[in-house]
DNA sequence: TCTATATTTCCATATTATTTGAAATATGGA
DNA sequence: TCCATATTTCAAATAATATGGAAATATAGA
C-alpha cells in the first residue's frame, strides 16, 4: 500500500458516521449488510449514509453488490489488513522491538488485551 | 479505546504530512527525533510542522520531551496499538474468522505478507 | 548579557468536508 | 404497466482544516 492510499483509507475512517458504518460491517463479516440496515443500526439518514458509503467505497474500505432491491455492503478486509500493515511497516527501523506489533492472524476473538 | 478517541487518532493520521511524520517516528522507535529533523526528513516547513505535530500530540499519537534546545517527538505506541485493536474489535461477530486479524506481537520485522 | 539556533504562535487565505431534504433512479412484485 | 420500497443524486448552507511567512519565545553557550 502506498501513502496516498493509506491517507484515503484513514480519512474514510476518520469520521464518526463512517467509522460506525465500518465497524458495523466488520462485525457483520463477509455476509455484509444492506444499506438500509446499516443506516438503521448506525442511526444515519439515507442521503447522508449514501454519501458516506460512497466515501468508504472510493477509499476501498467497503465493497458492494446488488441483491434484488438491496445493495449489500461488506467491509473490505484486504484493504484493512494492508492499512494495518502500512502503519506498522518498518517499525523501529525493522529491528525486533516490543512497542509496535505486526498484525497477525488469530482464531480467537479480538477483544483480549495486547502488549 | 472509544469511538471519539479513534476518530481523533484516525483524523490525525489521515493527512499527507502527518502520516509522513508519524511513519518517520514509528521507524525511529522509542528514541524519537527532534522536530527539526522530522521536518527535514518529511520536507515540511517549520510552522506547518509545528501545526501538524500539535494535531498528532492532541490525538495522543505522539509524545514530546524537551532535550536542551530540542524537542524530541516519539510515536505513542500504546495509542497506536489501541487503535489497531479498536478497528478489528469484535470482527465477524467475535467468531473465529480469517478476514481480519487481531494485532499480536512478533519479534520479526513487520514487512511480511499476512492473511 | 548577547548571539545563534530551535521551535512555536499568530494571521489571513484557500481549500475541503459534512449535512439533509427533496427529487431522481432502480428493482421486484401485483 | 403501476405501485411500493430501496438507494442514490443534487444543491446549498455551514463548518472545519491546511498552508506558510513573519514575529515571538525559549534555550545553550560564549
Give descriptors for this structure.
homodimer, 115 residues, alpha+beta, Arc Repressor Mutant, subunit A, 3-stranded antiparallel β-sheet, 3 strands, 12% strand, elongated, disordered C terminus, DNA-binding
- CATH top level of chain A is Mainly Alpha
Task: Spell the H/E element sequence of chain A.
Answer: HHEHHEEH
Low-confidence stretches of chain A: 101-115
Regarding quaternary structure, what we see is: homodimer
CATH architecture of chain A: Orthogonal Bundle
Report how far apart the termini of chain A are. 25 Å
Question: In angstroms, what is the radius of gyration of chain A?
Answer: 16 Å
State the total count of DSSP E strands of chain A.
3
| Basic shape of chain A | elongated
Biggest interface reads: A-B, 52 and 52 residues
Number of helices of chain A: 5
Class inferred from helices and paired strands of chain A = alpha+beta
Q: Going across the biggest sheet of chain A, name each strand in turn.
A: 1-3-2
Helix content of chain A: 40-55%
Q: Could you tell me the mean pLDDT of chain A?
A: 85
Might you state the CATH topology name of chain A? Arc Repressor Mutant, subunit A
Largest sheet of chain A: 3 strands, antiparallel
**Range of strand content of chain A:** 5-15%
Descriptive account of the structure:
By secondary structure, chain A is of the alpha+beta class. The first copy, chain A, has a single domain (3-89), classed as Arc Repressor Mutant, subunit A (Orthogonal Bundle), CATH 1.10.10.10. Chain A is built from 5 helices and 3 strands; from the N terminus they run ααβααββα. In chain A, strands 1-3-2 form a 3-stranded antiparallel sheet. In chain A, helix 1 (3-13) crosses helix 5, helix 2 (16-28) crosses helix 4 and helix 3 (35-42) packs across helix 4. The longest helix of chain A is centred in the N-terminal third of the chain and has 13 residues, at 16-28. Chain A starts with a helix and ends in a 27-residue tail after the last helix. The relative contact order of chain A is 0.15. At the A-B interface, helix 1, helix 2 and helix 5 of A face helix 1, helix 2 and helix 5 of B. The structure holds a DNA duplex (30 and 30 nucleotides).
Amino acid at each position: 500500500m502506498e501513502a496516498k492510499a493509506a491517507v484515503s483509507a484513514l480519512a474514510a475512517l476518520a469520521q464518526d458516521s463512517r467509522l460506525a458504518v465500518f465497524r458495523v460491517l466488520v462485525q457483520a463479516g463477509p455476509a455484509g449488510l444492506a444499506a438500509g440496515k446499516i443506516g438503521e443500526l448506525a442511526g444515519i439518514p439515507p442521503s447522508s449514509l449514501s454519501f458516506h458509503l460512497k466515501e468508504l467505497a472510493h477509499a476501498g474500505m467497503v465493497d458492494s453488490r446488488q441483491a434484488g432491491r438491496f445493495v449489500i455492503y461488506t467491509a473490505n478486509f484486504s484493504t484493512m489488513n494492508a492499512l494495518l500493515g502500512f502503519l506498522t511497516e518498518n517499525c523501529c527501523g525493522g529491528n525486533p522491538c516490543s512497542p509496535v506489533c505486526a498484525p497477525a492472524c488469530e482464531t480467537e476473538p479480538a477483544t483480549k488485551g495486547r502488549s
